[in-house]
């Protein structure tokens, strides 16, 4: 494996950056995390209960806890990108992975049928009371609302966000330009983005 050479920046500064993957599961999040590992980034892989109250701690305690790691993906981190931005400011970068809403829903539905009949309910707690015929519309709306909320939040900080569209090429160039590092010689990875082959060991069946 050939690691990239850092450009124009001190290596110690690079290691302080925090990269938060905020896309929903089914949008290529596992592949993106693997790519960041190839680039030498240290990924947080510790199981975290989304209801653990992790982000109730002071910013100083969170900064110390997160200090050794650079990449955070999955619940609860994707729902707390604003906290990371508040703590790490210009050292915090956001990667939003997206795909066509209908394709995304089909991916989630496929995972739902193959493993767990209640995955969509676990993803969207407010869907439990909905009729089955309403789930698709509500799920897609929540997915799109999340993406737009992230994009709107970074409307005036667009240098801190990278949007990666599922299935598009030249991801090495886009990611490396975004992080200001050289493109490695390694082939861009491709991983199945489903809960059964997740690189994370979270109890939750889905990652965001």
Task: Give the CATH architecture.
Answer: 3-Layer(aba) Sandwich
Shape: globular
Helix amount: 25-40%
- Report the major sheet: 4 strands, parallel
Mean pLDDT over the full residue set: 77
Strand content: 5-15%
- CATH class group: Alpha Beta
Low-confidence blocks of residues: 1-15, 126-130, 194-208
Helices and strands, in order, run as: HEHHEHEHHHEH
Quote the CATH topology: Rossmann fold
Counting DSSP E segments of at least 2 residues, the number of strands comes to: 4
- Structure classification: alpha/beta
Oligomer state equals single chain
The side-by-side strand order for the widest beta sheet comes to 2-1-3-4
Distance between the termini: 28 Å
Question: How many domains would you count in the coordinates?
Answer: 1
Number of helices: 8
Gyration radius (Cα, Å) is 17 Å
List the keywords.
alpha/beta, disordered N terminus, four-stranded parallel β-sheet, 39% helix, 208 residues, 8 helices, disordered C terminus, 9% strand, Rossmann fold
SSE topology sketch:
Layout: H1 11-14, E1 18-21, H2 29-38, H3 59-66, E2 71-73, H4 81-88, E3 92-98, H5 101-115, H6 119-123, H7 132-153, E4 161-165, H8 171-179
Parallel strand pairs: 1-2, 1-3, 3-4
Give a written overview of the molecule:
This protein is of the alpha/beta class. It has one domain: Rossmann fold (3-Layer(aba) Sandwich). It contains eight helices and four strands; from the N terminus they run αβααβαβαααβα. It has helices spanning 11-14, 29-38, 59-66, 81-88, 101-115, 119-123, 132-153, 171-179; strands at residues 18-21, 71-73, 92-98, 161-165. Strands 2-1-3-4 form a four-stranded parallel sheet, with helices on both faces. α5 (101-115) packs across α7. The longest helix has 22 residues, at 132-153. The two termini are 28 Å apart.
């Amino acid at each position: 494996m050939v690691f990239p050479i850092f450009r124009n920046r001190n290596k110690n500064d690079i290691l302080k950056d925090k990269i938060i993957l905020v896309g929903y599961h089914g949008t290529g999040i596992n592949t993106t995390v693997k790519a960041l590992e190839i680039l030498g980034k240290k990924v947080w892989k510790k199981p975290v209960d989304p209801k653990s109250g992790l982000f109730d701690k002071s910013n100083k305690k969170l900064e110390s806890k997160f200090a050794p790691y650079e990449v955070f993906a999955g619940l609860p981190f994707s729902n707390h990108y604003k906290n990371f931005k508040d703590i790490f400011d210009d050292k915090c970068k956001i990667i939003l992975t997206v795909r066509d809403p209908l394709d995304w829903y089909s991916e989630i539905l496929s995972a739902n049928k193959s493993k767990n009949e209640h995955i969509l309910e676990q993803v969207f707690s407010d869907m439990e009371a909905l009729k089955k015929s309403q789930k698709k519309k509500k799920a897609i709306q929540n997915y799109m609302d999340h993406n737009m909320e992230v994009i709107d939040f970074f409307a005036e900080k667009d240098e801190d966000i990278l949007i990666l569209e599922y299935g598009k090429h030249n991801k090495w160039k886009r990611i490396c330009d975004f992080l200001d590092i050289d493109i490695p010689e390694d082939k861009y990875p491709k991983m199945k983005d489903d809960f059964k082959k997740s690189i994370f060991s979270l109890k939750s069946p889905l990652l965001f």
